[in-house]
């Protein structure tokens, strides 16, 4: 049994049977679809968030790759090889992030 004080002058003990009688079926028909829609939206937002994050990482790695390529073009031979190798690493990382972003976007749609 649950004791609920609805007001100062009206206090009574409600049993589970009384409590169920007080729930409006029309209200439940409105609340349930809203709850379902909110759950679906939160799930979709989480998947889209992953796609956006991976796309941002891919863009950052591509920018680093371009920076290292420019640096290699302007430097002498010992540093040039190092900068070219770094650019290749950034290119590989960007490719991985683009692939993960594509997978996350496909998962959000399907």
Verbal overview:
The protein has a two-stranded antiparallel sheet. Helix 2 runs antiparallel to helix 3 (77-109). The chain is 82% helix and 7% strand. The longest helix is centred in the middle third of the chain and has 50 residues, at 25-74. The protein has helices at 16-22, 25-74, 77-109; strands spanning 2-5, 11-14. The chain has one domain. The model has no long low-confidence stretch (mean pLDDT 75). With 110 residues, it is mainly alpha-helical. The chain is rod-shaped, with a radius of gyration of 29 Å. The relative contact order is 0.11. It contains 3 helices and 2 strands.
Mean pLDDT: 75
Instruction: Give the H and E element order.
Output: EEHHH
Shape: rod-shaped
Give the spatial strand order of the biggest sheet.
1-2
Estimate percent helicity. over 70%
Main sheet makeup: 2 strands, antiparallel
E-strand count:
2
* Rg, alpha carbons: 29 Å
The tally of structural domains comes to 1
Query: CA-to-CA gap between the ends?
Result: 46 Å
